[in-house]
User: Which sequence fits this backbone?
């Protein structure tokens, strides 16, 4: 049940981010949104720990701020794997949109997690 709740929280966070952030677009149905949330969860569960381990010295040097870059790259990977999400603009602009999007998704997920019971 906890896993289903996490997928729903991620789906809502991605959907709200697509409404708020210009250039972060979601095209599809609720089913597609659930698939994107599952992809996002898998990317964060499998690839993110490896990336954090490999960038541990840089993360220490930046006092943890490099984690924002890792979160951005995980969101960009999710966009690349899914056909329903897209980032507008060129390389730099899409990175910036993913950076802001990762922050918004993290904040929304944290707030929703606070209000929902364990």
Assistant:
């Amino acid at each position: 049940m906890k896993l289903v709740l996490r997928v729903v929280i991620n789906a809502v966070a991605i959907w709200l981010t697509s409404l708020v952030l210009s250039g972060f677009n979601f095209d599809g149905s609720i089913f597609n949104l659930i698939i994107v949330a599952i992809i996002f969860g898998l990317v964060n569960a499998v690839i993110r720990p490896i990336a954090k381990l490999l960038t541990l010295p840089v993360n220490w040097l930046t006092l943890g701020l490099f984690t924002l870059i890792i979160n951005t790259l995980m969101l960009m990977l999710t966009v690349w794997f899914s056909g329903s999400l897209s980032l507008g603009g060129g390389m730099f602009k899409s990175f910036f949109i993913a950076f802001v999007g990762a922050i918004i998704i993290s904040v929304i997920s944290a707030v929703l997690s606070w209000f929902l019971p364990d």
